[in-house]
């Protein structure tokens, strides 16, 4: 993330310089996603999720999500082009980039039927992206750090500065709740898979195609995210404990073991490590 404009510039020029960066467009996209998610949430809670404003908010949220992840993917591509380096692995390496995966899913949700649960993982990510950008760029631009009156220089030899109390509060919030929120996202993405599966079982129009696309996305998430792996491991352990109960019918126990075996076989067959020489494609943290 680029540093904020120099404090020596007037406030108007600092804000103008900040607004002319792609990173600011990325921030506005996440902010728009948050506002639209909240607006759609209000419509959902009042059972007006098919009203004109609800549809507009839902589609705009995913349009903003596609724009934000598109900016990150574009910046990564431009950085590689400038450094004259080529990413190994070709299409598989590109598919292994988390930002490409979320860009693809944002476009899928943008043009698919409304599934409110699909908005929540993107909204959780946006909370932390907006908070991080506000702390690192927006606050220092509006209120540049002041020289500390208690110490002369920092360990790097630069004059010591005093950060904003608001920035410190945001930093503590991100540090304290990040892991719990990523675990929440993992749980939401698992619930979303079952939500799509239920639609497929009922033969809702287009649901089987959507299930195939989301399953591929979720398989990639499982291979890259320790939070998803932990959530699935915890859920599997809970079901194992339930099935191991003496009151569980043998048929249910056998069905669960068969299901686990099929899932393991499918996971092994779709492991990208088998097709990339045993190395996981280069991945990037979703932004």
Order of H and E elements: HHHHHHEEHHHH
- Please provide the count of β strands: 2
Q: Structural class, from secondary structure content?
A: mainly alpha
Overall geometry = elongated
The overall pLDDT average reads 85
Q: In percent terms, what proportion of residues is strand? A: under 5%
Total number of helices: 10
Radius of gyration: 23 Å
Query: Main β-sheet, in a few words?
Result: 2 strands, antiparallel
| Residues in helices, as a percent range | over 70%
Strands of the biggest beta sheet: in what spatial order? 1-2
Distance N to C terminus: 11 Å
Question: What low-confidence regions span 5 or more consecutive residues with pLDDT below 50?
Answer: 278-284
Please characterize this protein's 3D structure.
This protein is mainly α and 287 residues long. The chain has helices at residues 11-19, 22-45, 52-82, 90-95, 98-111, 119-142, 165-201, 207-224, 226-243, 250-269, and strands at residues 146-147, 161-162. A two-stranded antiparallel ribbon has the order 1-2. Helix 2 (22-45) packs antiparallel against helix 3 (52-82) and helix 3 packs antiparallel against helix 5.
Summarize this structure briefly.
By secondary structure, the protein is mostly helical.
Short key terms for the protein model shown above:
single chain, 287 residues, mainly alpha, 10 helices, elongated, two-stranded antiparallel ribbon
Write the layout of secondary structure elements.
Layout: H1 11-19, H2 22-45, H3 52-82, H4 90-95, H5 98-111, H6 119-142, E1 146-147, E2 161-162, H7 165-201, H8 207-224, H9 226-243, H10 250-269
Antiparallel strand pairs: 1-2
Helix pairs in contact: 1-6, 2-3, 2-6, 3-5, 5-8, 6-7, 7-8, 7-9, 8-9
């Amino acid at each position: 993330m680029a540093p904020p404009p120099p404090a020596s510039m007037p406030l108007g020029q600092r804000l103008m310089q900040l607004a002319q960066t792609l990173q600011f467009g990325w921030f506005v996209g996440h902010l728009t996603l948050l506002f639209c998610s909240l607006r759609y949430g209000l419509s959902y809670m009042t059972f007006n999720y098919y009203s004109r404003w609800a549809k507009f908010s839902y589609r705009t949220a995913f349009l903003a999500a596609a724009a934000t992840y598109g900016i990150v993917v574009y910046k990564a591509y431009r950085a590689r082009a400038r450094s004259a380096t080529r990413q190994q692995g070709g299409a598989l390496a590109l598919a292994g980039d988390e930002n490409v995966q979320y860009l693809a899913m944002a476009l899928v949700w943008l043009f698919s039927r409304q599934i409110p649960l699909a908005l929540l993982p993107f909204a959780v990510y946006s909370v932390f992206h907006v908070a991080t950008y506000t702390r690192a760029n927006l606050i220092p631009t509006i209120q540049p750090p002041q020289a500390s009156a208690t110490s002369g220089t920092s360990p790097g030899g630069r004059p010591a500065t005093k950060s904003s109390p608001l920035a410190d509060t945001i930093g503590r919030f991100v540090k304290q709740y990040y892991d719990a929120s990523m675990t929440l996202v993992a749980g939401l993405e698992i619930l979303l898979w079952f939500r799509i599966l239920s639609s497929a079982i009922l033969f809702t129009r287009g649901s089987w195609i959507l299930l195939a696309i989301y399953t591929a996305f979720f398989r990639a998430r499982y291979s890259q995210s320790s939070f998803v792996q932990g959530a699935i491991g915890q859920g599997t352990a809970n079901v194992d404990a339930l099935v191991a109960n003496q009151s569980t019918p043998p048929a249910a126990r056998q069905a669960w073991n068969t299901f686990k075996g099929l899932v393991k076989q499918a996971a092994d067959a779709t492991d990208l490590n088998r097709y990339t020489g045993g190395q996981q494609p280069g991945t990037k943290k979703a932004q």
